Amino acid sequence: MSVLLAFTAAVLFAIGTWLLLQRRLTRIVVGLGLIGHGTNILLITSGGEGGLPPVIGKGDKEDFADPLPQALALTAIVITFGVTAFLLAMAYRSWQLTHDDVVADDLEDRLIAANRRRDADVADAEAADLERESDSSGDEP
Amino acid sequence: MSAAMTSTLVPLPIVVPLFAAAIAVVFGRFRIAQRVVAIGALAANVGISIGLLVQADDHGVVTMDAGAWAAPLGITYVVDRLSAIMLVTSSAMLLVVLIYAIGQQGVEERHVGFNPIYLVLAAGVSASFITGDMFNLFVAFEMMLAASYVLLTMGGRSDQIRSGMTYVVISLAASALFITALALLYAATGTVNMADLAERIPELSTGVRTGFSLLLILVFGIKAGLFPLFFWLPDSYPTAPGPVTAIFAGLLTKVGVYAIIRTQTLLFPPESQQGTALLIIGGLTMVVGVLGALAQDDLKRLLSFHIVGQIGYMIFGLGLFTVAGVSAVVFYIVQTILVKTNLFLVAGLMDRHAGSSRISRVGGIVRSAPVIAIFFAVPALSLAGLPPSSGFAGKFALIGAGVAAEQWWIVTVALVVSLLTLFSMTKIWAGAFWGEPESADPNDMPPAVRAEGRTNGGPPLMVLATAITVALSIAYVVFAGPIYDLAERAGTDLMNPSVYIDAVLGADR
Fold it and tell me: Residue B166's closest chain A neighbor by CA?
């Protein structure tokens, strides 16, 4: 039972991580959802073996399932639900603005990269000039 | 004050802002009432926090069991000296930045939701500092982060959505890791109460302990912006509305640092504390932060990289795991929160005054708005750590602790990074305050400058709020002696976790 659950959690984590690394927002959202499920299963597994519902008077205390991880998992599910809704709203806004759900590169990053390219071009041009000069000076008798 | 009364104070920094948030939603249409409620709640929070600090400093750790469920079973709220210091600092900054936001007549005025969400953020930050339960810490983080997602993307511009997406996805991934760590901790120890964990973790095998220690550093390191997990930070913070960036820069990463300090010092016995690893991470964080800052042209992005650099200093102090080191970190965190908030508030003023936050575009602010120049100079010197600023006191303490622990290489790195920080601040000063604006044509000048020629900085409330942060950071160095003594008492408590554990679980267990 535990092994099966642990395996399920591992598979969910693996698929979720792969989806998270994609550039499309829809895939990222699905990926985060899957990772969320993986963590919840892990939480449930952390409580140990299953058992009777932990309600006083419904059986022997020793046979009860551990209620705490279930409470924790419930909390985690609610939080994941709320944040996923927010993510979807953001993905929709992104689609409204760009009609695409691919995450773009940062503008400042591109500017700095462009600066570096420009500097490199200038350096190349200077080097070429220098070479030409040295070539022409070499031609002179 | 009686003990019972003090323990009723403990949950108030969470409860007051949350209630105020609900009331602020009801008053959505009446902006004045909404503002009164928000400012009132945050001002009350400052008072409560100071009360808690006095109590925690005089009579030791204050605890409160939620719903009167005794310690390891229920959720315990704990205020020790570190928590109280962080509470006072954060509540003061939250109040000042709200005043600034109201004065700015920008995001706060345009969005009905700003005040309620800002209050939820305040509650989340307080809850992170107060809670004595790991799962509750997760909930507090989520409360804070959910509010921060909304604040960051308020306005819905395309650059905000783009960088907000990165921020939300990274935070969610970190949260998933956090729950994973919690599940594993619970499976191994059968508890999520921090004091109880501190008792049971030493019973685990060394490998498992080290694993947990590293996993928690990873989880909180993403929130704190440690190398190599900081990349989301300079990307997302600058796109938020000005006041929001200021509060994020001041507080959110420090909540992550607080969690690292708390878990590393409390939960793990000395032999599984990751001293060397933290020192290396701290050193790299400093270097990468300051080098990143040097490459930037946009003021807000530049300062965001400096946030990363400052985090490196804190991790360096913690990594020493000596009383002097940890005390210096406590002293330094408060100083950084003041200075960082201050710098971002000034960046907002500059942006408004000159119409851009690009250093290459603005210039001559020293002539057109001398007030802004003064407001910038004080925290800039602090950030670089020049005497007699508060940053000097903080860095002096850290480096002193490093020398005492004979960690020469990290001391050298810290000093070099300090020098580079100074260089980066001079770059801003020379470019934006002394230099000429890119365009001399008066029609291209921003409206504020064109209309008045020389201004007194901006709207009175914004200037007032910025002036308060400047005054606080000057007061911080004037009273550095007593404050450092307090930080030292906090550091001593942290290095002696039995104080915390006894307060939560009872000394006679």
Answer: A103
